[in-house]
C-alpha cells in the first residue's frame, strides 16, 4: 500500500505537464495539480546501475544527446481500450521503447500522446508497439498545441481595497493575449493566464503600472528556473560586461539582468543544463575572485516583501505619533490645565494663538509627508475612474486640514474673528489609519503560515558527494540545499531530511513520508526507489541522485498549488466586488449630503436645531459630520471578508493533507448534501488480495496456480496482479519463473486466454466463460453467489474448455468507512455508491459500510449520468473517486474529491485532492468548508453591519437627542479596527480541528 501510494503521489506531480494535449487530460475548473513529463529513461538507468561510473557517464551522455535533439509530440488514436488496465498496458509498452520522454493515455477519448526524441524512435515504431499488445493504433495528423499558454504571477504594491483589485483586474483582462486574470487583495498578488505569442510578462507589468500600482514579477510561468544572486564586490562597466558574457556562454542560460543598485543578478536558465552552483562558480572565476556570489536573501520573495511593508508602516506610524501626540495634547488636554491653557491661547498675530500655530506646524508633516501615500494612491485611482479608500482618506483629511488653515489665516488677519481648527482631526486620522494598516498587515501575514510551514520542510543544507571520473566517491561537502542541481548525488544520514526529489542509488533505509503523502508508517527504501524532498530518513545512510530540484520538486509544486488556490476567488466574492464598485462614490455623495443637511439646519435655527448658536458653528459641525461619514465608510473590511478566510482555509486544508483548488471548490463543498462514492480504491483499500481458492477437480494447488499465474502475469489488471502475488507465495524461491504463455489474448473487463503447457487456460468472469463456449457447472455458480454475498469477486479458471476452479479475490474495506458514512448522515449528507463491480459484491460492500443506495455494473459515462440525474433533482453533489473511469463523474459533480493515491487523471479532474487517501478526510473537507463559510458570512455581517450602524451615527442622527457625535479621528480608528477584526476573525480558522470522531 505504501509503495503504491508513494508512486501514484509522485506521478501526480511528475506525471505530465502543460504539454499534454486537452484530449488527454480532463481539465478542471479550478487551478490544477502541477504536472510535467517524467524523463523515465534517466531514472531507470540510474536505478539499475547508478553506482558505477560507466553507467553514470553513459546516462549523462545519453541525457546530453537527448537534450540536443528536438522533442516531438505524436498523438495516436487507440481503439480497443476499455479500462484503466488497458491504458496502463499501452503506456507501459510505449515507455519501454528507447527515446521516449513521456507518454499519456486517455482511455475515455481513445488517444495516446507520446513525447519522444526522433533520433531514437519513430512514430511507426511507437504505433507497432501499441499494436503488439493487442490494440489498434493510428497516427493522428494534427498539429498539437504548442506550449504557448503560460501562467505568470505578479506582486502588486499599493492596493488597499477591492476597488483597487477590480481596477488592476480589468486592465489586465482587457490586455490582448490575456485569457484570465485574478487579483487577490489579501496576498497582493495577481495570477495571469496569457499567450506568450501575443504578450510578454514585462508588458503585463507595464499594464499594471499604468493603473498606478507597482508590480514585481514573481514568475513568468515559462519552463525555466529563475534565480537571484547577490554580488559582493565593486561593480564597474568592465566587470558587468565580463559577468554577462561569461554567464551567457553557459549552456541553458536564457536571460540575464544586472541590478547595480541592489548588487543583484537575476538569471533565467534551463535546469537540465546548468544550475545555481555552476553560475556562482563562473561568476567568481570570471572575475578572478574580485566578485563573490551567493543566493540573494530576497530570493524567497513574499516574506521579505511582507516584512519590508510591515517595517514601512511601523516607521510611518511612529513618525506620525511624534507629531500627532503634541497636536492631541495641545487641543484636547492642555486646554484644561490653567497655566498651559493661558500660554497656548496667547495671541501671536491678531487673533491667531500660539496653540493654533503649533498645531498647524506639527500637523503639516503628517498631512503631506507621512500621508503622501494616500495622496498618490488617490490621484492614481481618480485618474483611472475607480475611487478607493485612499480617495476617502485624502478628501477627509484635506478637508479638515485646509479648513483649519483657512480658519487660522483668517484669525491672523482679523481682530475679532475667533478661529476653530481641526488639525488634530487630520493628523490623528492619518495616525490611526496607519496603525490599522500596520495591524492588518501583521494579521494578514499569518494567513499564509501554512505555506511557510510547508516550505520549512525542506532542509537548509545538504551533503553533496563528490565523485571521480570512475564514479567513486572521493569526498563530500556541505552546501546550501538551494544550490542542489539535477543529477547531484546527495548523502542523507539517519535522522536527516531528504534535500530534493530523486531516487536511491545506494543504501537501504526507511523514510517517514507522512508530512507529504500522509503515509503513517515509514516506507522502506533501497536502490532504485524514489524519495521526496522534505521527508525524514529514519535509519541507514542513503545516496540519492537529485532529479527534481528547486521549483520542480513535489514540495515546491504543492506550495504553488496552495498559492494558486488562494488566488482563485470564491463566487461569493463577486458580491463584495459589486458593492465596492459603487461604494466609494456613494459615500462621497452621502458625506456631501450630510454636510449640506447640517449646514442648512443651522441656518434656519428651527426645532430641533435651536441649540446651534450661529451659521458658522453649524458649518463647522456639518464639516465634522461629513468627514466622519467619509472616513468611517471605507470598504476595506468588505474587501477582506472573503479572501482572508479562503487563504486560511486552503492553508489549513493543505496542512491536513487536503488540497483545495480555490475558493469556488471551497464554496461548493459547504453546500454538498449528497456524496457519490466509487467503490474500488475509495471505500476499499484498492489493493485486492486472494482470500480463497475452490478447486473443482483433483489437482495440486501449486500446479493450479502455476497455470493461472502464467496467464495472468501478462495482464496489468489489479485482480491479475493479486493472483500472481498469491501464486508466488506457494514457491520458496524469490523470483520463480512461470511456464511460457503462448497465444496470449486479453479481453479488457472480461479476462485472459493463453496456451500454457499445451493446455488452453481461460481466466475471467462468467460472461467471458459463456462467450468462450464453456459451460459453468451449478456448483461453480453456487460458489460465485456465495462469494458475492461476502463482498468478494469470484474469478473462474478453465482449462481445455472445462471449469477447474474459482479464485476468490477481496478488496478490504478501508478502516472507519462505516463511521464516515454514519457521520455524513449526521451532517444531513446522503451517501450513494456507484461502481462497475457486480451487484452481489456491491450490495455486500454497501451493507457493510452502511450505504443503502447502490448502483452497480456502471460504466464511466453512466457514473457521470447518475451525478447529473442527482443534480437535476436539486441535489448539490460531490463525487469521491480515484480511477480514470471516475474522471467524467468528478468533472460533472459540483465538487470532485480525488483520493490522493489514485491516478493523476482523476486528480487533475478533481476540485479537492485528499492526499492521505483517508476516507475521513471527506468529512474534514466538507466540515472545513462549512466552518469557512460561516466565518465569511460573519465577516460580511460585521463589515456591512458596521457600515449600516456606523454611517448614521457618524452622520449625527444621535446628536439632536443626546448631543453624542463621533469625532472624525474616532471614526478613522473605528474604520481601521473593522478591517483588523475581519482579518482576526478569519485567522481563528487556523485553530480548526477535524470532527472529534476523526481528529488526531
Automatic annotation (TrEMBL):
Membrane topology: Multi-pass membrane protein
Sequence segments annotated as region (Disordered): 28-62
Chain intervals with Low complexity compositional bias: 28-43
One Gene Ontology term of the molecular function aspect: P-type monovalent copper transporter activity
TM annotation in the entry: 316-337, 387-406, 582-601, 621-641, 940-959, 971-992
Main location: membrane
Residues covered by the HMA domain: 72-138, 150-216, 225-291
Keyword Transit peptide: no
Biased amino acid composition, Gly residues: 44-54
Source species, domain of life: Eukaryota
Family matches, as Gene3D superfamilies: 3.30.70.100, Calcium-transporting ATPase, cytoplasmic domain N (3.40.1110.10), Calcium-transporting ATPase, cytoplasmic transduction domain A (2.70.150.10), HAD superfamily/HAD-like (3.40.50.1000)
Cellular localization per UniProt: Membrane
E.C. number: 7.2.2.8
PROSITE patterns on file: ATPASE_E1_E2, HMA_1, HMA_2
Catalytic reactions of this protein: Cu(+)(in) + ATP + H2O = Cu(+)(out) + ADP + phosphate + H(+)
Top-level class of the enzyme under EC nomenclature: translocase
Keywords, in A-Z order: ATP-binding, Copper, Ion transport, Membrane, Metal-binding, Nucleotide-binding, Repeat, Translocase, Transmembrane, Transmembrane helix, Transport
Cellular component GO terms, alphabetical: membrane
Annotated family: Belongs to the cation transport ATPase (P-type) (TC 3.A.3) family. Type IB subfamily.
NCBIfam families xrefs: ATPase-IB_hvy, ATPase_P-type, copper ion binding protein
Protein name: P-type Cu(+) transporter
Native species: Urochloa decumbens
